[in-house]
């Protein structure tokens, strides 16, 4: 690799000067990466959960069952396509298309690596780089909810409508927390461009300096993609299948594709915002300078995405579904306040560092003192309130309705009563013999 190529690779991505054939190749490669990752994720999910539940999982189609998801996709494409009589046909058909298309185009601003040379042309391993790339991804995820809501409404059935309404409330709620968790990253990096955010993590990944943002983003991403334990819009136990109950064949496959593509997209965005993007992990770049050059960064990036996808599968195989009121309470009363407080702290730290030239150590000591005071007050105030409540009401009742402890269930009126013989139990065995 000559000096010019090294210099080109060491600069942020410059997108827009590629020839048409290279742009077309990038589009095909992006689509192929997403489809292959979806097929791999489905098989890996069934294998991992099977291993967790001490069963083999798919092991018949292809070597070790690796082609099972491809067979399922072909089967879905050739199944009979049914449309309910009460459905609004135009919206019913449009809904899965919206979900799939929006999910696919959101991945276009994710950087997979630095600048490389392809047949003599220096180009970035990224389909396009927008100055507001993060806002573009958030906008695409917001549009994805339209496909689910329209599918539930257009099906003309009760269960899909309930699933669509749940999805609207859920995705709006957790988008707020996700957006607030991303703002500290934008303040620290000083840019909305995904490639610029990766280059801002050249020395330290944001997962270490912005750990609360990473935790809130990870939880919000699971809620945003409707995955267990936050899969309330589908909820097989009470809503049959939720918003896609009345869908079959290729339309159902498009919803399935959109769900897994969204998982890949939020995992890739997590790697980009918090895990250094395509940079080599564990300080490998300092030991081996070539680790962040040429095509090696694609390997590091894919490894981070697969690790995030494994967490999705791990959660699904480990945690039960939350109750709906607990789910909404957690989003609005826990994640959103924590994100707001952390955002204020990050903004204050950046201001103190830039305007008043405080060192990072002094700022962290001040933040630690403030947090200790807040925690101490939070531990004292609820205890005092609890003592006051106990003094007023020695038997406090729960907020949730519970049956009385002395409840006696009356006998069923349908139960046939067998008349007892008068005096039959009072006779002794000897009297019965006589």
From TrEMBL:
Subcellular location(s): the record lists: Cell membrane; Membrane
Gene Ontology MF annotations: NADH dehydrogenase activity; oxidoreductase activity, acting on NAD(P)H, quinone or similar compound as acceptor; quinone binding
Q: Could you tell me the keywords of this UniProt record?
A: Cell membrane, Membrane, NAD, Quinone, Translocase, Transmembrane, Transmembrane helix, Ubiquinone
Q: What is its EC number?
A: 7.1.1.-
- Where is it chiefly localized? membrane
Query: Which residue spans traverse the membrane?
Result: 20-43, 91-113, 133-153, 174-193, 205-223, 252-275, 295-315, 327-351, 363-382
List cellular component terms (GO): plasma membrane
Disordered, as annotated region: 388-434
Which reaction does this enzyme catalyse, per its entry?
a quinone + NADH + 5 H(+)(in) = a quinol + NAD(+) + 4 H(+)(out)
At the top level, the lineage of the source is Bacteria
Please provide the Gene Ontology terms (biological process) for this protein: aerobic respiration
Q: How does it sit in the membrane?
A: Multi-pass membrane protein
Q: What class of enzyme is it?
A: translocase
Q: What does this protein do?
A: NDH-1 shuttles electrons from NADH, via FMN and iron-sulfur (Fe-S) centers, to quinones in the respiratory chain. The immediate electron acceptor for the enzyme in this species is believed to be ubiquinone. Couples the redox reaction to proton translocation (for every two electrons transferred, four hydrogen ions are translocated across the cytoplasmic membrane), and thus conserves the redox energy in a proton gradient. This subunit may bind ubiquinone.
Q: Summarize the subunit comment.
A: NDH-1 is composed of 14 different subunits. Subunits NuoA, H, J, K, L, M, N constitute the membrane sector of the complex.
Tell me its family.
Belongs to the complex I subunit 1 family.
- According to UniProt, the name of this protein is NADH-quinone oxidoreductase subunit H
State the organism of origin.
Answer: Cryptosporangium aurantiacum
